[in-house]
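Prompt: May I have another protein with tokenized structure?
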Amino acid sequence: MAKQVVIVGGGFAGISAAKKLASANFSVTIIDKTNHHLFQPLLYQVATAALSPGDIAMPIRAIFSKQKNVEVVLGEVDAIDKVQRRVQLKSGAYYPFDYLVLASGAQYNYFGNDDWKKHAPGLKTLSDALEIRERILLSLEQAEQIIDPDRRKPYLTYVVIGGGPTGVEMAGSIAEIAKRSMMRDFRNIQPNETKIYLIEAAGGILNGFEEPLPEKGLKTLEDMGVEVILNSPVQEIRKNGVQIEDTFIETPNIIWGAGVAASPLIQKLGIETDRMGRAMVEADLSIPGDPAIFVAGDAAHVKDKNGVPLPGLAPVAMQQGKYVGNLIRNETMASSNRTAFKYVDKGTMATIGRAKAVADIRGFKFSGFFAWLLWGLIHIFFLIGFRNRFRVFAEWTWHYITFKRGVRLIAKKEDEDRL
């Protein structure tokens, strides 16, 4: 009888591990609370109406439709029984395992201010992206109908919190929308009326990059009309704006990208975690005292050769998933016989706007058009499925030539005033 492998999470780490086990002599079960694998690095392009949700997501069942040993379950894990070797779903169903891979990802961390979430959504799911997209489009529609410039101002103000790659990419994309892409379709508002703020608690943006890339990124944002506010932790977020120090920025358009925390599921393992809730795993990504349970991706605390924790990036998760999949496939049970996981850093990059990006590829630093082109090619390559790659390439080409965003639909109408 084939051994049972349960993989929790259909993100980069989970999918990569399952692919290594496809067609092998194992019975693999992938459990995820959504039915699709999501290419999160391009979520902000859905949020800013550049891409459709279907361009960056693919049903997990479709990915493994030809792999007879892989079963996909739509559900949310509620408990992990390490003694009985099974996981329990919220529905009450049990799934036994010989090997368990927890690749449950991360969520945004509001640092104890969870009530902020309803006013400042993060960007982790398709629902988040669609909510942000509709907020942006609704604001433009509402501003179009207000004659008084002072009353119109909040609807043309956008605040992005967090100066990491997600925040920088969002701020740059909103600047393009507000100051160029969509303004030609509105009659009563002008590009110079819009205001975009990027707020960062630290002293700089893109802190994971080496100079001069953060400085170039900052200058690019400022040239695009984004006001970057540094050394300014957010003190309060309300429905109608953001408080930083002595300044209140009035707007209903607030996007959170300031910090992440591992999935709460990791706490159910009963092991040590770091301050972000990530599991403190062994060198082989197994949990202490149990070589058959692994944690991979954003939920794992793993250090690089310099002792610095690896970032929550897609390449890290993919490499960890492949590594765990190979370990299980080879059934290397004794931790002492396993080669430690080593991350091969192939570079880091972030796009800021049309033909604007920064990239650090193994010590070679690029910015501008070449970095943007490189960013685009790599992201298309990592998308799952030829159809998705083709559609994203076509959308980007169209947008680059015409300056037009393709997906500007509002699916729901808010009944009450937003301010």
User: Anything to note?
Assistant: The chain has a mean pLDDT of 89.
